[in-house]
Design a protein that fits this description.
The complex is a heterodimer of chains A (115) and B (111).
Chain A lengths: L3 E4 L2 E4 L5 E7 L5 E7 L6 E6 L6 E2 L10 E5 L2 E6 L8 E8 L8 E2 L3 E5 L1
Parallel strand pairs in A: 2-11
Antiparallel strand pairs in A: 1-3, 3-8, 4-5, 4-9, 5-6, 7-8, 9-10, 9-11
Chain B lengths: L3 E4 L2 E5 L4 E7 L6 E7 L4 E7 L6 E3 L2 E6 L4 E6 L8 E8 L7 E2 L3 E6 L1
Parallel strand pairs in B: 2-11
Antiparallel strand pairs in B: 1-3, 3-8, 4-5, 4-9, 6-7, 7-8, 9-10, 9-11
Classes of the chains: A mainly beta (115), B mainly beta (111).
Amino acid sequence: SAVISQKPSRDICQRGTSLTIQCQVDSQVTMMFWYRQQPGQSLTLIATANQGSEATYESGFVIDKFPISRPNLTFSTLTVSNLSPEDSSIYLCSAMGGQGADTQYFGPGTRLTVL
Amino acid sequence: EDKVVQSPLSLVVHEGDTVTLNCSYEVTNFRSLLWYKQEKKAPTFLFMLTSSGIEKKSGRLSSILDKKELSSILNITATQTGDSAIYLCAVDYSGNTPLVFGKGTRLSVIA
């Protein structure tokens, strides 16, 4: 199984600022994903982080608001820009396509609160 | 239209009860079905099911897939308060795309 770490685990940010979340996988993986989970909701996919190319965003999510980097096969970042209270959520990094290739594993999540 | 539907959305049981959680899905490009348990933040993997009729078991938890009915159940026997969580069902529709999640079943086990 892949072990995924995320930093920070939680943060409280002011409106209008940005937060960058880092995701590190302990092995090379093909696919990395970023999810958002708003309070009381299920997971919503934000984008697929592609290595060496731009991320693929789901409907309702745009690169200007959620820029993503994927510089190599084990690392990705998600930035949540121009924060508003509506961005308060748990953000989860996920990976698949490494060892145990068919299973999608999740990082521990980042709990973001925007004041 | 939801591709993965879970029921019930929430459930409250007493310790020692047995619960059955349901998940139904669309057939198009189905590859596998996965169950996750979500307590605080991140979902943790429970089972992956690809073949119909083969039960997967881990302790008090078990799950089975029925491809004819396009559904899966997750059983928890002799429930404990530590089983309280959201149980997520997810389907891999092609193997190369992210999972499609259901809305989850919130299980509360009371002493």
